[in-house]
Specification:
The protein has helices spanning 7-16, 22-34, 40-54, 68-77, 90-102, 116-119, 143-149, 174-188; strands at 58-62, 82-87, 109-113, 127-132, 150-158, 192-197, 203-208. With 216 residues, the protein is an alpha/beta fold. The protein has one domain: Rossmann fold (3-Layer(aba) Sandwich). Strands 3-2-1-4-5-7-6 form a seven-stranded mixed sheet, sandwiched between helices. α3 runs parallel beside α4. The radius of gyration is 17 Å and the shape is globular.
Length: 216
């Protein structure tokens, strides 16, 4: 597997990144102990910066795990904002709600259990951000419902678009093929403009064009 950032640079970034509060630190320790995938503090800070810069008030997460990224988004949207989390695992949901309560953010988050691809089309209104972190083989199925859910000028943010470097290797498995197909579709979509940030495992930022205007 490929490392996109040298060990020395990654160590430097970890050292200069401020320590997290007790809730996030416990979540990071839990993820490390159980080998559970979370975005981590470097990407968490990116999500916060992007959401604040966009003035996001409505965020929906497709695949929320036990709520790590939700905390970063919930802090970014402020007291008047809402984060809708969709997660298939009931146990993850229970853990997430406990962490969100401890962080004082439970009232900013709506938690829904089930298939994100089935739930998203039924949500009312439009969103400033759709955060995509579902099973990688299903990534190609995300683009159309995300397109419908986003407001013009909104962002589709996708984790794991570089997939440990496997996207550049021969004989891809189903997860890798899903990411590759999704990435090609994003770049080909006339109403999205996409850039992939090679931070951690690759974070895709895709802005939806304003109504009536094609992406450059």
């Amino acid at each position: 597997m490929t490392s996109f950032v040298s060990a020395a640079v990654e160590s430097y970034l970890e050292k200069v990144t401020p320590k997290r509060d007790a809730t996030l630190a416990e979540m990071e320790a839990l993820a490390a102990a159980g080998n559970f995938p979370i975005v981590g503090p470097l990407v968490g800070r990116l999500l916060y910066v992007v959401a604040r810069s966009l003035g996001a008030r409505r965020v929906v997460e497709l695949g929320s795990g036990f709520g790590y990224s939700a905390i970063w988004f919930a802090r970014a949207v402020g007291e008047t904002g809402r984060v809708t989390c969709i997660e298939g695992s009931a146990e993850n949901g229970r853990r997430a709600r406990r962490f969100l309560e401890r962080a004082g953010l439970a009232e900013r988050v709506d938690w829904k259990q089930g298939d994100a691809l089935e739930i998203l089309p039924g949500l009312a209104g439009s969103f400033d951000i759709v955060f995509n972190d579902i099973d990688k083989a299903d990534y190609p199925k995300v683009l159309e419902p995300a397109r419908q859910a986003l407001r013009p000028g909104g962002l589709l943010i996708t984790d794991n678009l570089l997939w440990f470097g496997k996207v550049a290797e021969p004989d891809p498995d189903a997860s890798t093929r899903g990411i590759q197909e999704f990435t090609r579709a994003l770049y080909a979509a006339p109403d999205f403009f996409t850039s992939i940030v090679p931070l951690r495992d690759g974070v895709g930022l895709s802005i939806k064009s304003d109504a009536g205007a094609a992406a450059p």
